[in-house]
Amino acid sequence: MVESSKTNMKIVKNIPLTEESAIIIFRETYESIRQLGDARWWLQGYEPRNHEVSMEILKEINIKEKIKLNHLSRFKAIRNDTNYRGFKVTITQAKEILDFWNTCSLEIISILEQELK
Length: 117
Prior knowledge:
Elements lengths: L1 H11 L9 H22 L7 H8 L13 H14 L5 H26 L1
Helix pairs in contact: 1-2, 2-3, 2-4, 2-5
């Protein structure tokens, strides 16, 4: 799951950010973050059944930018509004989730890889 998340983000980072691509960038970055939460659950012997638990478990990780983990609930709400209510993701929202990825993911991935050993 961690490798899938990293691969997905390599692709996402090559997509130019425009008003039209913001939704794809946001959704795929969200998916990559969710996959990290899934991986954390699996390392603990559980299979997550929904996005909420996958995001919540990430909030328990102690990273330098721990305060940014509070954005996960907002990202989930934006994703749900987009997928189920047809809301449009803005460039600002896409930049925000990309900033989260760029700031927090390497440390989260490192912690997950250490837990794997």
